[in-house]
Amino acid sequence: MSSEAAQRKKAENKFQAFSEALEGGALQQVRKMLNALHPAEIAHLLESLPPPERNVLWELVDPEDDGEVLLHVNDDVRADLIRSMKKEELVAATEGLDLDDLADLLRDLPDAVIGEVLHSMDAQHRRRLEAVLAYPEDTAGGLMNTDTITVRGDVTLDVVLRYLRLRGELPELTDSLIVVNRFDRYLGVLPLTDLLTSSPELTVAEVMDRSVEAIDANLSAEEVAKIFEDRDLVSAAVVDENGALLGRITIDDVVDVIREEARQSLMGMAGLQEDEDLFAPVWKKAQNRWPWLAINLVTAFVASRIISAFEHTIGQLVALAALMPIVAAVGGNTGNQTVALIVRALALGQVTPRNALRLLMKEAGVSLLNGVVWGSVVGMFAYMFYHDMMLAIVMGSALVLNLLIAALAGVLIPLTLRGLGRDPALGSSILLTATTDSMGFLVFLGLATIFLI
């Protein structure tokens, strides 16, 4: 058994154990089991339970873990849990959280609770929190933590070491100290490895790494994730438009961004909300799916009208009715492969106006080649079943054309959505399927009308 399968089996066994304990009313046993879990594991368990069991389990969670658990559950579940909590419980849940995590949680709390939390903080921490809240949560400024250690370039490494010993602790995931000038402008970083292995008489300016660029606070979370991936960063400084240091981003926050993007793309391809509660009320879940179902219905009517326009053709050659779903299905599969490729390339920043046309031509060439190969195969089978060479040629030609259309649509739909400022993953698969179905029927039945009837 692979490690992934073993991990999945372990999670299933754990969920089963909790379910049985809840059903049996063994609440003390459940509380003990909960206390042994990481907040992220508790969050996953809460998302996996229907609301009645979820509410019972939530009451058993150690209050000290409430804040961390709320950060890990999805938006819908978090909103439900917050509604069930008293004001003083919510205020207590914010205690001990890192500033960047606190900022994320505060955005979902009632105004009265936010005011209470801000009032309970000292002036310095309040200013730091307000600095994070000033930026949208999907930007570098919204991701950053203001808990940083800065040093000046003119001091010696010995002074820095004595300062760190006096301080007694480092912020989590600190792999380097941030070097600033007397105006708090970012200059570079001092890696801890260099600090520990270089001569104490050297100055910070002599050892520091000036090549590590800071991240602009207005940069999108998606671009931040790409920078961390490209540069293999553990942490990075965040600056404003004037180069003044605001805070830093650490790899744990970037991992959250990557995971969220993956979940958003997976759900968005089907037109679903990425933070939808698995056990949300039926009415709410139904409403969430209405927009894309409406689009599906409209496109289905279009495909239906295309088929109706060729009723006479189908009536004269019944074999067309059996063959035309093949053209649409193969086209849809090809298009979905192209959409997945383009959405991924857009997420990685690999598609630009300069190479978009070239990419379009490349995908068209791949589909043309596949169309010729598999169109020939399909045409051969059509001839074997119906002993009609012209029908076989029409079938193969329709497949070639629909694969070409699917490739073009697979490139153009995500690019168009991106151009309109929308998520290119959102509903791309639905729009593509509508295109390949309608055009597949039109091409196949149109060619049949011209050459067979």
Q: What report would you give on this structure?
A:
- With 453 residues, this protein is mainly α.
- It has helices at 3-23, 27-35, 39-47, 51-60, 66-72, 75-83, 87-93, 99-106, 111-120, 123-133, 140-143, 157-167, 192-197, 204-207, 221-231, 251-268, 282-309, 311-316, 319-347, 356-386, 389-419, 428-451; strands at 150-152, 176-180, 186-191, 215-216, 235-239, 245-250.
- The strands form two sheets. Strands 1-2-3 form a three-stranded mixed beta sheet. A three-stranded mixed beta sheet has the order 4-5-6.
- A hairpin with a 5-residue loop joins β5 and β6 (245-250).
- α7 crosses α9.
- The longest helix is centred in the last third of the chain and has 31 residues, at 356-386.
- The chain is globular.
Quick overview:
By secondary structure, this protein is mainly alpha-helical.
Q: Kindly report the average pLDDT value.
A: 84
The residue fraction in helices comes out at 55-70%
Q: What is the CATH architecture assignment of the largest domain?
A: Orthogonal Bundle
How many separate domains?
A: 3
> What profile does the largest beta sheet have?
3 strands, mixed
Termini separation comes to 58 Å
One letter per element, helices H and strands E, the order comes to: HHHHHHHHHHHEHEEHHEHEEHHHHHHH
The order of strands across the largest sheet is: 1-2-3
C-alpha Rg (nearest Å): 29 Å
Given this structure, which CATH class of the largest domain is correct?
Mainly Alpha
CATH topology of the largest domain: Tetracycline Repressor, domain 2
Counting DSSP E segments of at least 2 residues, the number of strands comes to 6
Find the structural class using helix and strand composition.
mainly alpha
Helix count from the secondary structure assignment: 22
Contiguous uncertain segments of 5+ residues: none
